[in-house]
Design brief:
Blueprint (H helix, E strand, L loop, with lengths): L3 E2 L10 H13 L9 H20 L8 E4 L2 H15 L6 E5 L4 H11 L4 E5 L9 H7 L4 E5 L13 H11 L2 E5 L11 H4 L3 E5 L10 E5 L25 H39 L3 E4 L9 E6 L4 H10 L2 E2 L15 H5 L4 H5 L1 E5 L6 H21 L1 H8 L1
Parallel strand pairs: 1-11, 3-4, 3-5, 5-6, 6-7
Antiparallel strand pairs: 2-8, 7-8, 9-10, 10-12
Helix pairs in contact: 1-8, 2-8, 3-4, 5-6, 8-12, 9-12
Amino acid sequence: MNTINLDYISANPLLPEVQDAMIDAIKKNYGNPSSSHQLGDQAAAVLEQAREKVARLINCASPQELVFTSSGTESINHAIKGIALAKADKGKHIITSNIEHNAVLKSIKRLLKMDYRVTSVSVDEYGLVNPDDIANAITDKTILVTIMHGNNEIGTIQPIKEIARITRGKDIIFHSDAVASVGVMPVDVQDLDVDLLSLSSNQFNGPSGVGGLYIRRGVSPLPLVDGGAQEDGRRAGTENLTGIIGMGVAADIAFREMESRVEHTRKLKERLIRGLKESIEDIIINGHPEFSLPNLVSVSIRYIEGESIVLMLDEKNIAVSTRSACASGALRASHVLLSIGREYADAQGTLVISFGRNTKESDIDRFLEVLRKAVEFLRNMSPLYKKAKVI
């Protein structure tokens, strides 16, 4: 039986066109894009072609505003630490939210040890940041605001344009982690008016190990990697050309298919939520009902543990997750779910179901059928469930 992959948020499968382009690139044995000879010139040309395709996906004013990195995590680190170090003489205050990805939280934790100060604003029951809270947190020492675009655990999309309007008025740099959003839904850096935006290839059917950082012209985060002058001096190290070529092809396809992809995933999401509500009692759908990623559903199934469900689904060749892959292995409940007010036990009983271009309605139906039986089995053994039903 084929595996049903409902864990796209961890990594999308490579498209055949992307695989073909990467294999072709390996066979062509491109040179180093920085080399001053014909092989280098050929490599530099395909590098720039890929940059143009990725830049078009997020509507950069110029392809040169996009820097290739090794991952979304590196992009986020570069944005936050790079601005913090570059602006340290102006101030050391940073504003973020309580539901950011670990790449943001741990970057900030590192800066706290270097005498930076951080204000982390709370979110409402849907995971939404209130722009007024950002405005009220700004001081004359604030140098950076970093708020994610779409949450990778509950899908809520933040009011980025409204926050950007505030930071622009105060001349404060604004970074958004859009790793979970780019390629999944339209993301336009000029319309959002952000200064920096992080993205990752593996969220839109490109290879893992390649990411991008949008840096608006005139914004200058300090480079974190010292070495050569690659990426216009903003990120040293020879580029992962094969991966970047694959990312360019994936970005080109995502750009051309964006409307149909969003329509496809929205229909799957509606089918999934409807099926969950009809087939399983005592569940909570997490995230905003309107402002949310079209390809992700977070559901807390009360009285049982999410990890147990994941294992039972895996036995039936269905892959889902309980939280961000970058937080897997952690024994604590998700900080995102606790921040929106979920009880600890309900947070532990949460599944993150994510899907994409190749997911079929029959995959959703099969998942619902297996999930219903797994939940019934586990609740029959759950003392919490029995206690709740007796009361």
